[in-house]
What we know:
This protein is α+β, with helices and mostly antiparallel strands. The chain has a single domain, classed as 3-Layer(aba) Sandwich (Glutaredoxin). The protein has helices at residues 25-39, 61-70, 92-101, and strands at 6-11, 46-51, 77-80, 83-87. A 4-stranded mixed beta sheet has the order 2-1-3-4, with helices on both faces. Strand 3 (77-80) and strand 4 (83-87) form a beta hairpin. The radius of gyration is 13 Å and the shape is globular.
Amino acid sequence: MRKEIEIQIYGAEVICASCVNLPSSKDTYEWLQAAISRRYPNQTFKIRYIDINNPPEEDGLKDFALRVVDEDMFFPVVLVEGVIVGEGNPKLKAVYEEFEKYGYTAG
């Protein structure tokens, strides 16, 4: 049985200074959720939005949110199972490639 994977989107309400004219982190989260659901119908996955300015206290989530800030990463930063697949303006192809490593198939 295929593992249900988790995708995490780290972002902020304020658009990244280097990402002017790009969608907000929340817009990217919603866009990715819709695109992945269309690409992999009837295949479940978890998707989480983490605010880098107010991250949850959970192990790893707060640490990575601080890393995004400390390293001046372009956000949103998109991770699939802990692997960074995009920063600033994530590409669907990279996200899909990571999903398919876990056995997800396009429908």
